[in-house]
Amino acid sequence: MIEFDHVSLSLGTFALRDVCLKIRKGDFYFILGPSGAGKTVLLEGIAGLHSPQSGHVLLRGEDVTGIPPERRQIALVYQDYSLFPHMNVAKNIAFGLKMQKADRHTIERRVEELLRAFDIGGLRDRCPLTLSGGEQQRVAIARALAVEPDILLLDEPFSALDPVSKEKLIEDLREIHRTRDLTIVQVTHAREEAMRLATRVAVIIDGVLVAEDGAEEIFNAPETCELARFVGIENILEGRIVSSSDHVVRVDTGAATIIAVSDLSKGEEVAACFRAEDVTLSLPGSSRSSARNTFEGTITGFTPMGPLMRVSIDCGFSLEATVLRDTVKEMGLSPGSRVSASVKASIIHMTVRTRVIGD
Amino acid sequence: MNVFRHPPLKVGTIAAGMILSAFILVLLFLIVSHPSPENLISSMFSPEIRFAIYLSLLTSVVSTALCIIIAVPAAYGLARYDFLGKSIVNTTLDMPLALPPLVAGVGLLLFFGTSPFGKALAEAGLVFVFTPLGIIIAQFFVNMPFMIRIMRSTFESISPRYEYVAKTLGCTDTQAVWRVTLPMAASGFFAGAVITWAKGIGEFGAALLLAGATRMVTETLPISLFLNMSCGKLNLAISAATILIAISIISLYVFERYGGSARF
């Protein structure tokens, strides 16, 4: 559906370097990266707002590198919504249809339909500047969908929303993606959104596409240590494989030995990655866990995370675990408590360590 | 005096501002109150002042229109695009602001009076030296930077993303500017036009050198003020000054009230 073939594009301080990616029809594709990584430039490159210095952009199988945005049939919604302040809500939504020279009857029917679909009928005569963030967001998406594009580009749509509007938007986007046969490309620096919505994810750092895979693989089985860190895997323990047999490896990290399921061979420099929520806590000696990795340690601190609690433990190396707040209470945990932390060997993801440029 | 409630810095700086504004108000009051109201009104309706009003309005409206036609696209280009020599172009366009109008007038006089281009224009019937056309060109040259600066700052304050969105919704580059950016720039445009027009009406130095000061021919309000002052017709001079003061006050009010974020 969308293809970047070795695209390099620089724009002021932002630059994409030799980016190759393929977005398939029907994907809910997330482009993830820290602020200033070049994500928005990439999105604008898809829309045709900037032409690449080298490489080709293909849309629906055709090279569109020199084709201007108005002929690409791609809708774009910015994080600040960019609603036209000199037009009311209905006129904003009708704008694209007017540009397509649709007849008045069609425009009216389509605007009504979208006002209803996005539950913004009451706002039709309002000026965009008087709307709340969530309302502006819905108007902006309705305006984008009015021209019935098959590709929708979203630039950080959640960044300015309160939690309630955010939940509503996540549901809306799921619905739009499911019912309107859309390919959606969304850029964000927030991982949680991607974890909940994405079918595929690309990670872009400093203008370079560092990873591109299914959401599951990116978040739970990242290919490199740096990527593991970027996608927020809390426990990354670096070491060397000291034995390997029957798809089970033992990794010596210096402070501990970790057992994991992996096909890597003895001698490889690796990092064992696992998420805090995959760590189970118990009181020392209280019960025998079936997990093959059990470390005893002392609790050094707590970080509340809504109904959950992040527990930091010193096991000779630092380990992060996430448990229910109630569990903390029931187990009577406090800083200084001794605990056993267990992790299943099958859940640990092994990555081969790579050196970062300039490291 | 309690120095904590009235710190010297606060008192001193506020006093400076207040004294200055009082000085300005006194000057303005002295001008308008100098002749008797009857004399002022009869002077204002004299054929000479009526001609000056007419010529001032005509030349300033035409020169403002010229400024708009050229400054708006130029300001857009300077606000939106990066190009080689942009800072030089920016500085050069601001030059007439810093240049004494008399110097600008000398330049214009040489250009239209002695250059082959100016001579060719004169042969084609476009005579700028010592004609009302010269007033228009002088006003245009001196006041263009105001329009450019105001429009440039207005365009810079409008995110290009509005245009980007418009383009994805089917606009060409030009349509996006016409349908989205220009309407959004309306307040800056309006403020710029008012200030350019008001400056045009008051233009004296460059117009004097290029168009001369001929009674009932190139006699705008400031030229009329100058001519009548120099031959002692104080009532006529002051009625011209009073009209200029009124125009200044109104245009300043309009600029502050409706100018939005426009600055110059």
Compact summary:
The complex is a heterodimer of chains A (359) and B (264). With 359 residues, chain A is α+β, with helices and mostly antiparallel strands.
Structural account:
The complex is a heterodimer of chains A (359) and B (264). By secondary structure, chain A is an alpha+beta fold. Chain A has helices at 39-47, 89-99, 104-117, 133-146, 163-179, 191-197, 215-220, 225-230, 325-331; strands spanning 2-11, 14-23, 28-32, 54-59, 62-63, 74-77, 151-155, 183-188, 200-205, 208-214, 235-245, 248-252, 257-261, 269-274, 280-282, 293-305, 308-314, 318-324, 338-343, 349-352. The longest helix of chain A has 17 residues, at 163-179. In chain A, 25% of the residues lie in helices and 36% in strands. In chain A, helix 2 crosses helix 3 and helix 2 packs parallel to helix 4. Chain A folds into two domains: 2-220, Rossmann fold (3-Layer(aba) Sandwich); 276-344, RNA polymerase II/Efflux pump adaptor protein, barrel-sandwich hybrid domain (OB fold (Dihydrolipoamide Acetyltransferase, E2P)), CATH 2.40.50. Mean pLDDT of chain A is 86; it is low at 355-359. In chain A, strand 1 and strand 2 form a beta hairpin. Chain A is globular and about 75 Å long. Chain B is an all-alpha fold. Chain B folds into two domains: 1-33; 37-258, MetI-like fold (Orthogonal Bundle), CATH 1.10.3720. In chain B, helix 2 crosses helix 13 (234-258), helix 7 runs antiparallel to helix 10 and helix 8 crosses helix 9 (173-184). The longest helix of chain B is centred in the N-terminal third of the chain and has 34 residues, at 47-80. The model of chain B has no long low-confidence stretch (mean pLDDT 90). The interface between A and B is medium-sized, with 25 and 18 residues.
